[in-house]
Amino acid sequence: MKYEVPVWEKSNLTLEEAAAYSGIGINKLRDITNGDDCAFVLWVGSKRLIKRRKLDEYIEHAYSI
């Protein structure tokens, strides 16, 4: 039996999950997270994960994306 954790309970999200969770497009998330100064990206090898809580903080303080 495979147990699926709801997106809002995960600490790290894939680009697809982060896009569905935030309403921001995958390509825009990819653009934002490409920078070395992005605080909410976690690289696991070449896999890009989005830190959900940090993304929430970023969106909360952003005027436009």
Walk me through what this model shows.
The protein has 65 residues and is an alpha+beta fold. 40% of the residues lie in helices and 17% in strands. The protein has helices at residues 15-22, 26-33, 52-61; strands at 12-13, 41-44, 47-51. The chain has a three-stranded antiparallel β-sheet. A hairpin with a 2-residue loop joins strand 2 (41-44) and strand 3.
- Tally of helical runs: 3
Number of distinct beta strands: 3
Helix/strand/pairing class, anyone?
alpha+beta
Residue windows where pLDDT falls under 50 for at least 5 positions: none
* Overall average pLDDT: 92
Our Rg estimate from Cα atoms comes to 12 Å
The largest sheet, given as strand count, sense and whether it forms a barrel, is: 3 strands, antiparallel
From the N-terminal CA to the C-terminal CA, the straight-line distance is 40 Å
**Helix fraction bin:** 40-55%
In short:
With 65 residues, the chain is of the alpha+beta class. Helix content is 40%, strand content 17%.
Fill in the keyword field for this structure.
single chain; 65 residues; alpha+beta; 3-stranded antiparallel beta sheet; 40% helix; globular
